[in-house]
Structures are given as C-alpha cells and as structure tokens.
Specification:
The protein is an alpha+beta fold. The chain has four domains: about 190 residues, no CATH class; about 210 residues, no CATH class; about 160 residues, no CATH class; about 190 residues, no CATH class. About 50% of the residues lie in helices and about 20% in strands. The protein contains 26 helices and 22 strands. It is globular, with a radius of gyration of 34 Å.
Length: about 800
Amino acid sequence: MLTNYFKIAIRNLTRNKVFSVINIAGLSLGLTCCMLIVLYTKDEISFDRFQENKDQLYRIKVTMSDDKETRTIGSTNAIHGQSFKEEIPEIKEVVRTQGSSFVTKKGNDLLNEEILFADDNFFQVFSLPLLSGDPQTVLSDVHSIVISEDVARKYFNTTDAVGKTLDLKIGDKFETFNVSGVAKKCPQNSSIQFESVLPFKFQESRGWTDQEWLGFYMNTFVLLNDKADYHTVVPKLNQVFKTKSAEEISKIKDFSQKISFGLQPFLTIHLDNESGDLANGLNHASSPIYSYILSGIAIFILLIACINFVNLTVARSLKRAKEIGIRKVVGSQRKQLMFQFLGESFLLSFVAFSLAVLLTQLVLPTFNDLANKQLALSYLLDVKLISGYLALFLITGLTAGIYPALVLSGFSPAQTLYNRTKLVQKNYLTKGLVVFQFALSICLVIGTIVIYAQFKYLTNKDLGYNDKNLMRFSLGRGGPGVEVMKSVKQELENTAGVETVAAFNGSYNGTGAKTEHGKIDFGYIGVDDNFLPALQIPVVKGRNFARRFGSDPVESVIVNEAFVKETGWKDPIGKEVDFEWKNQKYKVIGVVKDYHFASLKEKIKPLLLTQDPNYRLGTVYLKLDSRNIPETIKTVEKIFRQHVPFMPFEYKFEDVTNLKRYEKEAKWKQMITLAAVLSIFVSCIGLFGLATFNAESRVKEIGIRKVLGASVASITALLSTDFVKLVGVAILFSLPISYYAINIWLQDFPYRIEISWWYFAISAILAISIAVLTVGFQSIRTAMVDPVKSLRSE
C-alpha cells in the first residue's frame, strides 16, 4: 500500500511538472527564510550561555534621573565594585573592565591595538579559556599581558608566545610587556570580546586612583554567592552608595540628581531593550525586536508558500476527481485517501526542505553580511537545532497538506464518475488566503519604500556644516604639546591642496553648568579659531573666536541655538555660563547655527565651544581641494610622521563617517527589500494558482461565451477583473496596517520624513500591475482554447 502511494505521488509530481516546480520553489524559499531566522535567533539567545558562572553573574548598572529625564547606563567608576564587595557579603568576586587602545610595534611598523584592562581574577570569573598560562596568575604582574591566539600569530607567527614581549606606547615612550598567557579566540556569541588584556594594576602603578563616586565610565561585574538573591543585594548597593558618597555630594552646590544602582543579569545583557545606553563597549549589544521582525517576515513568507500549495493543489484537484471516485468505489476509505494526499504533501515538503538546506548554505554569507553575523550550520548544529528543523518540516507538510486532503477525500464517487464535481467558484477560503498573502506583501512593499525614503533623508539632509572633502586625523590621545600642534598646523597651511586647517579636542564630551535660568547640561568641545570656518558652520549672532582678542581662551565661549533655546535667553551675547565645578565663569561671545554633531537619530542638544588652554587639542581637521586628494594625503602623512614619529597615521573623511552612522538602517533597507521581493514572488505564484483554479472551474462557461461571440480580449478582461478585485481588497486591508507600522518605526527618528500618500499609491499600483501580469498569461491562454474541445463532452 505504501509503495503504491509513493508511486502515485511520484507520478503526480512528474506529470504536473510546472505546478510541482512552483510548489517546491515556493516552499523551499519559505523554508530557507525560516532556517536562516532560526539560526539568527538561536545565535541571539545563545549569547554568554557557555559561561560556567552565568546564573550568578551580574553587571552593575546605574539609573540617573532629574526633572528632565531618566537614564540607565551600564557604567560605573573604579571605586564602586571594590567598595560594594567590602560591605556586602553576598558579593563573592568583582571584576572591572575598561577598553582602551595602544600603539604597538611590529618590526618597524606602528599599529593600533585594542586593549582591555581587567582585574586579576578576570579569567577565573569568566569562562574564556587560555591556550597557555595559568588563569589565576596571568594578570598578577604589572607588566604582564594576555593576548589572543590571533594576536599571537600576528606578532609572533605562532600561538606558543608565552615569555615573548610586546612593546606598547605609554605616554611618549614604549614600555615592554611580557606575554603571560595566550587565550583562545573569544566565542562570537560572547558579550565580552578582547584581543589583549592588561591588568588594572598597571593603571594603579602609574598613580591612577579614581576615587570619585559620581564618575561612570567602566564595566563592573559581580559574582554573587550561590545562595544569594540579587533582589536583596540591590538595596544594599544603594545603601553603601548613599553612605560613601555623602561627603562628595555635599560639596556640590544644588545637587538634585537622583542616582540608584541595580544589577543586570549577565545573560540579559545582549538582548536588553536599553542596549543603546547599556552596551558600554560590549559585543553586539542588540535588541530582541530584530529577532521578532525577522521571525515575523520568515513566518509570513512560509505561510504564503503554504497558502500557494493549498491553492495549487485545490486548483488541480479536478484532474484527479475520477481517480478519487474509482478509489472510493473499490473500497478506499476517506482516512486512507487523506493519508495518501498528506503523504504527497510531505513528499513534496521533503524535496523542498532538502533544497532549502542547500539554499541556506549558499545564501549564508550574504545573510551574515546583512545581519552582521558569522553564522554557520556547523557552528550552531546541535540536538535543539535539528529538532527545530524537524518540527519546521512537519509543520510545513501538515499546514500545506491538511486542507487539500480534507477537500479531495470528500468528493462523492457518483458525482466524480459522471463529471459533475465542481469546486464552487465562490471559494471564499481560497480567495481569502490570496487576499491575506497579497496584503502582507503590500505591507512589505510600503515598508521598503518608506525605509528607502528615510535612509535617503538621513544621508542627504543638510547637517548644518559641510562634510565634503573634510578629513580628520589624531595627533595622539590627550593631544600633543602646544608647540607640536602649532608646527603641524603651520606646515599644513602651506601645503598645496589644503584649503583650511583646524583643530579640536577630538570628541564631544558631556558636562553641565549654571546660567541665570538654572542648571543646563550640554556638549562641550575645545576648538581653535579655524574650527567654524573649516566646517563652514555659520555664526548667527556675535562673533567667532579670534587671536586679536587675547582673553578669549580664558573668559569667552560660543554656544549653539539649542543652548540658547534651553536657557530661554532672548539676547545671549554677554550672558554668563558658570562652571561651578572648576570655579570659572565665561561670557557668551557668539551663537552658531545648530549643526548635527551627532547622528540624525539624536536630537540636536545644547553645545558649548571653548578655547580653554587646559583643554588640549589633539585632532586636526583639513578641508581639502577635491582635485588631487591622494597626493595631498601623502604630503599630510609625511608632515605627520615628522612631528609624531611613534603614532600610526590613520585618517577619516567626515562624509564617510557620517554614512557609517546609518549602517544598521542600510542593512535593514536591504533585508526588507529582499523580503518584499520574495513575498511578492511567492504571492504571485499563489495568484497564478488561483487563476488556474478559476480557469479549470469555468472552462465550459468560457466555451459557451466564445460560441456566442465573446472575444479573447473580453474573456481575458472578465477573468482578470476577479483578481484585480482581490488585490484591491488586499490593498484596503494593508494600507491602515502599514500606516500604523511605519508610524511606529519612524517615531525612533527625531528627524524623519513625512508620510506621503504616494508611498501607498505606488505600492497599490505596483501590486495591481504585478497581479495583472501574473494572471494575464493564464487568462489569455484559457480564452484562446478552442470551444469545441471544452464543450465536446456535453
């Protein structure tokens, strides 16, 4: 019996090659999408689960609130962790980590290396295996360094590097560090990543003793005792902070900020919804929303493919009506027929599943590039993954086959043998499924158009300054000596191809000060006289810094329009900004037009520019002539090496840097576009199936119409109108859903496009055009059939 069913299934697949190919193609595409998303989701939820102490590991987090906002960060200061350990018995171990970068030597070459500072017990608390070295002692010496196997091969061409030395630039000279251990490459699903690790003792040996309770800039992890409940530890953290910080807070005038400490379970770090503020240098801090969206898209595409299978199977069922009738006459029971048709469904699903596995392997590199992952079937293959894929196969086969099996097995033998079987044209389920799948596809098309429009807006909006041909490079962390910067600037100003030379401190730091209207928080940067001209930032009130005003560095500042708006000043020129924390007051001499010094995903915040001589300038901006940039860069590098011999020359162009800020949006643009194309393609297969179904059930009606004089064009229009109506209904359903979804998505952008009616109009026109083209072929083919052939059985 089973052999007979198998032979019949193979015969049906080969006899209806076109429909078999369409079914297999649709299902394999849907299954491929699901397989990729299963890999993606499995990787996301697997982060840090290899850690032996995962259930007792936590990171200290801090929540700061005032009258304006509440913010939670994953940063602490050096004093916090050790003080908490001393006062709270539930804390077994404390590990501090802080990322930094150092210049290293490799022969005559100078390279930048990312270094992680960590406490001595780093390799005892975290399960990050060493190829060589003792986890308990590798960081015990001040000048010890642990390197990864990649760094070992890079510098020593071997992983057997213990006892060898590395030279790191500390200040103005190089110091030698002894390799005490070589670590295995960090798993890609580890939140903590490193290439090299230095002991915090080295920092402390150089006089670094940061004892401020109100400083927050490093990660602090705590390992609790096995029986400790972290909910009971949190109040103790806050009590210790309240007691220890009281003296420091009392010295700050009008301190109104509320600060509270908490514990973040280590396993939740990667997928924390607040990952933007809590990431703090940890690897690929993500949001579960990405997994939800991708999973939703994959399920939609697979669901559309299953709908297609149902439609096509039902559409072809009239061809098998007599077979079913004969089987019933000779004694087949309905459950046997259902078993047969479900078996055919599972056979086809198995072929599609096998093809999907191959497709998954082929497209994984592209998917990894889009998702910024390094996924591989071999990397994530385990019993759970295999079980998940097996469940996916069974669900797909059952979902695709159960309805056709019920319909086909229910045919009456008398009606089928006398050619009286009809599948009612008002098949609401079939048509409803096509409406559903096209509605999903239209939503994705609208989403694609909106994402493209928003991405174009982000990358083309006027930033308030000119970033074209604007090059920047650093002369060293903390800034070089004043004379070095002066000499570099003078030579660059006389270099052909360099239009303007400017300097600033290299980053936008946050601080606060007091004005007549109260305290204000703002960005704070140090600049020279040429900073505004180089970036072409207009001064809207007052003046720029100028050398002829010798008092500018010590008593003058410039603010942006957002600063003025925040303070409520009507005439800001001459107003005072009181930096209480350094006992210094400055007068506002100018107001610059707001410019986007951060991403367009952030609203422009108050900004203050200073020439405070204590704020060392270490970054150079060059406005270059566009005619011969490569030669100009070579000359600039030569000048750099003359004045800064022990630093690698690394430069960036500001327009490229700005584009990189939207890499995530660019990836999503590609992903959603691909999803929209796939869903439309698979939906068109479903529409083709319904066209076939309609043609099969109306073949005699069309024959009679032709006998009575109907033209091919009129019959084609008659058949196509039904489908255009279905797509029209799908459009009506999809418009409010997509409008709601894109409205939510755009809320994350303070600077965003207006939702225009033409986004929806284009999507609707595209959907109708694709529908007409899809069904047009089948409609014309049916309309051209000789009526004699279709009516001769009567």
